[in-house]
User: Fold this.
Amino acid sequence: MGKHPHAFAWVSMLAGPSFSAFLMMMLFNGSALSQLLREPSWFYFSLAFYQPTLISLALGACALPVSGFFLWRLLKNLPTFETFPGQFFVLNATMAGAIFGFLLSVMINFGFELFSSKPDIASIRGEMFISVVISTIMGAMLSFVASHICLAMGRLAKWIN
Assistant:
């Protein structure tokens, strides 16, 4: 099964959500990256890498309970597998990303509605529905990509087969 499958599962459970959030931050960070290439300075480096890294670490820390819930099943069943279950890992990571995207979007929408000057949930139902759907899909897609990158890195490091 490889040298350290439990270590790989723990590291991916802790670092995977932050890596997915970092991918999301880099997706929407094109202007800061292009400005950094045109005019290198600490300010543009901070906009391009430092601030997205801090935000992705915070989002990853918020996603730890969801990631832990889904990948705990992998850790619990790991001794019963002969080889590392790559599809099971990707499936659980993708479900965790989708559910975290859904929960984060719902919390942000209700937070904005709660602290708005005129709370009226009926007026923002359509916008909230679209943002929740998009967040769920993005969470699933980014977690899917990040889990495959984690699997490739784990296989390159010979932690798993």
The CA atoms of residues 113 and 121 lie 7 Å apart. The helical segments are 5-27, 30-38, 42-77, 86-114, 125-156. The radius of gyration is 18 Å. The first helix runs from residue 5 to 27.
